[in-house]
Every structure is written in C-alpha cells, then in structure tokens.
Automatic annotation (TrEMBL):
<comment type="similarity">
    <text>Belongs to the UPF0585 family.</text>
</comment>
<dbReference type="InterPro" id="IPR029063">
    <property type="entry name" value="SAM-dependent_MTases_sf"/>
</dbReference>
<dbReference type="InterPro" id="IPR010342">
    <property type="entry name" value="DUF938"/>
</dbReference>
<protein>
    <submittedName>
        <fullName>UPF0585 protein C16orf13 homolog B-like</fullName>
    </submittedName>
</protein>
<dbReference type="Pfam" id="PF06080">
    <property type="entry name" value="DUF938"/>
</dbReference>
Length: 205
C-alpha cells in the first residue's frame, strides 16, 4: 500500500466537494470512474463516505494499480471495483471496454498537471463519450488562467513540473474550457481549495 502524504491531507476536502455536488443525486445508485487514481487512498475514502456510488479506480502504472488492490483488500471495500489499466491519453474506445453513457461521474485528481496535453484532450473527449447526460467531470489541480500563473509558488511548481517532464505543467483553465465545449461539456463551477488548488466541475450537456 503506497502512501501519498498529500492524498492523506486533501481527501477530506475532496470528499466534501463530492458530497456537495452529488447531494441531489442520492439515493440514486451512481457509477464513478477515477482517472489516474494513484495510490488508492482517495477512492477508498470516497467509498467509505459516499456509499451510493460504485467506484472504478484506474491508473496507467502497475505499481499504483497494485497499491489500489492492496487498499481494497485491507479495507474490504465493497463499492470499489478492482483497478483497471487506463491510459487517458488514448481514445475512449481503448478505456478498458467502458461503454458510452455509462458514467455518472469522472474524476481526475492532480492528473492534468502531471501529464501531457494529449492526456487532457483524452480526458475531455473520453468524458464527452462516457458520461451520461448531466454527468459530471471533476478535475482537481492547480491551473493557469488566461496564460497567467499566480502566485509565484505556482510559477515555481510549473517550472519544477516542466523540469521533470517538458510535457507536464499547469493546464490553462481557458484551454480546458474549450476542450470541454468541443466535447459537449460546459464548465459549471470552480471551487477554491487549499494551497491554490481548485476543483473544476464540468457538466455533460
Ligand atoms: C500526481 S499523480 C496523482 C495521483 C492521485 N490522483 C492523487 O492525487 O494522489 C498522477 C497520476 O496519474 C497517473 N497518470 C499519468 N498519466 C496518465 C495517463 N495518461 N492516463 C492515466 N493515468 C495517468 C500516474 O500514474 C499517477 O498515478
């Protein structure tokens, strides 16, 4: 079981956002796909707090999928499915056989800043196909706005990410908004979180 200190710090705030945006949906049974799940700490906590959702974790890396499996075993989580390999930069037809209009929620936590623009394109085009009408795409991270990154700690984060991989870096909210628009989604809300992080809530029209 891998441990991410940041996931341990921010799961509660993320849970509150999910509880709030899904409030009017319970007691309907929902299906949520998590992209780039990482260690599995988030999905396990979400499942414990939000039991009316079936959670499908996924990651591109085997070590993370193994960690998610270990969390599922350790917590005996009944509403978390076994993790699947999913490369979000690939076309949705390659997303582990998931079908069109099958998801109520797709969530990507800190994925977009740690991946290429091709992944952002994949996330929005996949969400456009997999989400049901009125379904939600929730992306959490640090973002640029109109090409501008503030404050200086975020500029520094962007530089550090680009040093790690020139294709990484803070995505621009306006570019994401255009991606959303092109795929039948619209940016409905921006929720400010700790440390200049935001949750962007997109709805499928
Ligand atoms: C910064 S970590 C965030 C992990 C987790 N969501 C969290 O917040 O703790 C980024 C995650 O995205 C995954 N990832 C990177 N590129 C991906 C891609 N193209 N498709 C799916 N997952 C990807 C990585 O393996 C990693 O688990």
């Amino acid at each position: 079981m891998l441990l991410s200190p940041q996931a341990e710090r921010n799961w509660e705030d993320l849970c509150s956002v999910l509880e709030e945006v899904l409030e009017d949906q319970s007691p309907r049974k929902l299906f949520a796909l998590e992209l780039g799940s990482g260690t599995g700490q988030h999905v396990i906590r979400f499942a414990q707090k939000i039991p009316f959702v079936t959670w499908q974790p996924s990651d591109i890396k085997e070590e993370y999928r193994d960690s998610i499996k270990a969390y599922i075993d350790a917590t005996q989580a009944k509403t978390v499915l076994q993790p699947i390999f999913l490369d979000a930069s690939e076309p949705w037809e390659k997303w582990a056989g998931l079908s069109r209009n099958s998801c109520d929620v797709i969530i990507a936590i800190k994925l977009l800043q740690y991946s290429s623009f091709k992944t952002a394109q994949g996330v929005f085009s996949g969400a456009g196909q997999l989400l049901k009408q009125n379904g939600l795409l929730i992306t959490h991270g640090v973002f640029a706005v109109n090409g501008i990154i503030t404050p200086s700690c975020n500029e520094h984060l962007d530089e550090e990410l680009r040093k790690l991989n020139p294709e990484w870096g803070l995505p621009d909210i306006d570019v994401l908004r255009q991606q959303a628009y092109g795929n039948g989604l619209r940016l409905e809300r921006m929720i400010e979180m700790e440390d200049y992080y935001k949750c962007l809530i997109f709805r499928k029209l």
